Amino acid sequence: MARDFQRRIGAFAALVLALPASGQVTFNRDVFPILRAHCQSCHRPGQAAPMSLLSYRAARPWAKAIRNAVVATKMPPWFADTRYGRFANDPSLSPAEIDTIVHWVSEGSVEGDPRDLPVPVQWPTDGWQIKPDAVVSLPPFRVPARGVVDWVYVTVPSGFTKDTWVTSIEILPGDPAVVHHAGVFVRPHNSNSGDMLAGLSGMVAVYVPGFRASDFRAHSAAQLIPAHSDLVVQLHYTPNGNTVTDITRIGFTLAGEPPRRRFITYSPQPPAISDPDVFRIPAGDQDWASPPVDGVFNVDAELVWFLPHMHLRGKDMQYSLTFPNGHRQIVLRVPRYDFQWQIGYDAASPIQVSKGTRLHVDAHYDNSANNRANPDATRDVYGGKQTWEEMMVPFFGVVVDAHVDPRAVMTLPGQAGAIGTGP
Predict the structure, then answer these.
(1) Residues paired with residue 254 on neighbouring β-strands, in sequence order
(2) Which helix (H) or strand (E) holds 224?
(3) Model confidence, pTM
(4) Which CA distances in Å does 214 have to 91, 163, 327?
(5) Where are the domains of the chain?
């Protein structure tokens, strides 16, 4: 009893200290700074979230829903296990910030003095997360209301007439409701090649629900787009009952000078993903283990970014390293995967990997009725391209010196080349 009483007193004291000195919690002074820092990147027009939180007028009707979501830690979405690794883009609210929102709602969700409102962020226009220096638009594509649309590959000129280092790449779907994913590859321009996939140098950027912008500036790095290259864009459309014409765009920010560090995006898959005798998730199995992805670093490098990708039965994914001295380290564990929020995780500090370090990635799937996202728990599920099939693609980003040949950085057994081939 005494210990419980002390715990309650401690919690109450922490709550009191979290409240503003002047008493009443207001939107302008207390809540808006929280929304600006943690929520508005998604909760604004043209972004993934369903409502805007840019102003009191926009946020006030959602006050109770905001309170319920943050108390339940459903928002902001974040799925990394806090025991393993620290990430620079973690949007999670502190207990004090959650308490502030709870008190704002319980006290009537008042607006407060307009003079207390901090300066709003000047967000990029036209739906971009990062204001681009150059934009490439794809031709319109008509997505039917129903049926199955096979993966589409579109080739367009990059528009770069000289070797160009880009510091960010953002894929902006015209209609996110029908774009399951998009991946950008680079290949030399060759108008005589009849093979759409010939000469691909690897994926340089990806869009999936919840993630669409790769910002290499966070790692003091850039990616190289060779002069006169073509962009090959892989698009997976999912009809949603309405006929839609999609025009996806790709935005780039450009380096002012050649960088010292190169960012490389990897998208490997288990070698057995296409073998139905090996990659088969039995009906009703709530903890099926996928064949893993394994790789080895051939040079010293930095591991800086992760993005787990599965479909509706995806349950968890874990990345681990084994160093040449035998030490093993878990660098990311996502214990509760969510197909609707496929988050990229930026390491707060680069993970130094020496030559000979091994990467190992495990994943599990829930094909039971306990999985609310599961469309049919009575059938076996196999590896495949469509949403009702399954994938296991542990994206990750590596930084090396700019002069290093990206094809020599890693060996990924069973992969088509050193760099993965797409989601």
Answers:
(1) 166
(2) strand 223-225
(3) 0.87
(4) 17, 20, 30
(5) 2-116, 125-259, 261-423
Q: Where residue 189 falls among pLDDT bands split at 50, 70, 90?
A: confident
CB 343 within 8 A of CB 337: no
The one-letter code for the residue type at 352 is: Q
350: part of which helix (H) or strand (E)? strand 345-353
pLDDT reading at 10 higher than 80: no
**168 neighbors 130 (Cβ within 8 angstroms):** yes
Q: What is the mean pLDDT of residues 200-211?
A: 83
pLDDT at 289: 98
Long-range contacts of range 381-388, CB-CB < 8 Å, 24 or more positions apart?
381/280, 381/281, 381/283, 381/313, 382/276, 382/279, 382/280, 382/281, 383/273, 383/274, 383/275, 383/276, 383/279, 385/150, 385/151, 385/236, 386/148, 387/180, 387/238, 387/311, 387/312, 388/311, 388/312
Q: Report pLDDT digits (tens) over 323-360.
A: 999 999 999 999 999 998 999 999 999 999 999 999 99
Do residues 232 and 154 touch, judged by C-beta distance below 8 A?
yes
Q: Does domain 261-423 have CATH number 2.60.120.230?
A: yes
pLDDT of residue 48: 77
For residue 177, give both structure tokens: 């409701």
List pLDDT tens digits, range 265-280: 999 999 999 999 999 9
Residue pLDDT, tens place only, 122-173: 999 898 999 999 999 999 999 999 999 999 999 999 999 999 999 999 999 9
Task: Tell the CATH topology of 125-259.
Answer: Jelly Rolls (2.60.120)
* CA angle (237 as vertex; 186, 47 as ends), nearest 5: 85
What is the H or E stretch that residue 141 is in? strand 141-143
* Per-residue confidence (pLDDT) for residue 2, from 0 to 100: 42
Tell me the two tokens of residue 417.
């080349």
Burial label for 340, CB within 10 Å (0-12, 13-18, 19+), is: exposed
